Amino acid sequence: MAEILVLVDHVDGDVRKTTTEMLTIARGVGEPSAVFLGSGYDAAASTLGRFGAAKVYVVDTPELDEYVVAPKAEALATVAAAAEPAAVLIPSSPEGKEIAGRLAVKLGAGLITDAVDVTAGDDGLTTTQAVFAGGYTVQSAVTHGTPIITVKANSATPEPAEVTPVAEPVEVTISEQARKARIVERQPRAATGRPELTEASVVVSGGRGTGGDFGPVEELADALGGAVGASRAAVDSGWYPHAYQVGQTGSTVSPQLYVAAGISGAIQHRAGMQTSKTIVVVNKDAEAPIFAMADFGVVGDLHTVLPQATAEITKRRS
Ligand code: FAD
């Protein structure tokens, strides 16, 4: 079977769900091998094995942590050039897309971003993308070189396929060229105790209608054990960090429950949450477009409705 490289998305060996989703997609079209860049492989091995990565290329050189993205692209290019895989799958995160772009240039290969699926046919691999804010679904294929494909989070349900991974250490010499932008300081994001936005089964999002007060949104999220999201209007207003933006230019989420509070439902916001299983809307304007996609809607002021919901949920859970 054709080898498919999957770039592992991890923090110090803590493997993120995007990786297990990509391994699942890769198994559908070939034999997945993971590429682990940086330190912490021992912590990651069992998760990679559980989701079918029989082989793991491990590159652990200090430059990967010391410099901004370029060394990662070089390391992945070294692995890909030697392995000659049928495709390389990379997470559709900002960093992943930058690695993918650099990799495509280095390999002289075609690149497809934001795929939600990859299938194999007589003519090679075909990707599916949701474009124009989810308004159209298109199929594309790379026609030149090794397909480099970035895969959106929540594109597949991770399915275990236990194997014992074999680590293959790869020596990489990072060029002077890739050591131009050094990381001088790191500040860990303040721990919220909430689940990761793209991995949460419950997301409560606030928009311009919060007026900048995310307290009721956070309290409902905490009562439900969920993550907090935000519309771009709220993020652009400086009310919530950009990392929490849901939508076309933010994160794509697909939770079991999505609560949209004070959000009108612009197409760019819908693009990031429309595959949520159950959508609950709280908006004081009964004509707000987002009600069209609601499974359950409340017309009212979120500052009144959300605290009532939080109180009732807390009461029933205690
Ligand atoms: P508004 O559209 O202003 O809606 C606010 C809503 O709150 C209204 O429906 C109002 O009735 C309701 N409301 C007001 N007060 C209350 C209250 N007290 N209680 C209850 N309801 C209340 N947007 C994103 O979200 N994510 C993206 O990734 C994104 N990407 C974009 C990319 C591009 C290229 C462009 C051009 C735009 C993008 N946008 C994105 C912006 C998008 O077009 C909208 O401007 C944005 O989603 C609006 O945010 P909002 O719904 O919070 O604000």
Task: Provide a concise account of the structure shown.
The protein has 2 domains: 3-179, HUPs (Rossmann fold, 3-Layer(aba) Sandwich); 197-317, TPP-binding domain (Rossmann fold). 28% of the residues lie in helices and 26% in strands.
Could you characterize what this model shows?
- Helix content is 28%, strand content 26%.
- The longest helix is centred in the last third of the chain and has 16 residues, at 302-317.
- The protein has 318 residues and is of the alpha/beta class.
- Strands 9-8-7-10-6-1-4-5-11 form a 9-stranded mixed beta sheet, sandwiched between helices.
- It contains 9 helices and 16 strands.
- It folds into 2 domains: 3-179, Rossmann fold, CATH 3.40.50; 197-317, Rossmann fold (3-Layer(aba) Sandwich), CATH 3.40.50.1220.
- The chain starts with a strand and ends with a helix.
- The protein is globular.
- Flavin-adenine dinucleotide is lined by residues 207-209, 231-234, 245-250, 262-264, 266, 268-269, 272, 282-285, 288, 301-303.
Please state the second-level CATH architecture of the largest domain: 3-Layer(aba) Sandwich
Largest sheet report:
9 strands, mixed
What ions, cofactors and ligands are bound? flavin-adenine dinucleotide
Unreliable stretches: none
The main sheet orders its strands as 9-8-7-10-6-1-4-5-11
Total beta strands: 16
Order of helices and strands: EEEHEHEHHEHEEEEEEHEHEHEEH
Q: Portion of residues in helices?
A: 25-40%
User: How confident overall, as mean pLDDT?
Assistant: 95
Global outline: globular
Percent of residues in beta strands? Answer: 25-35%
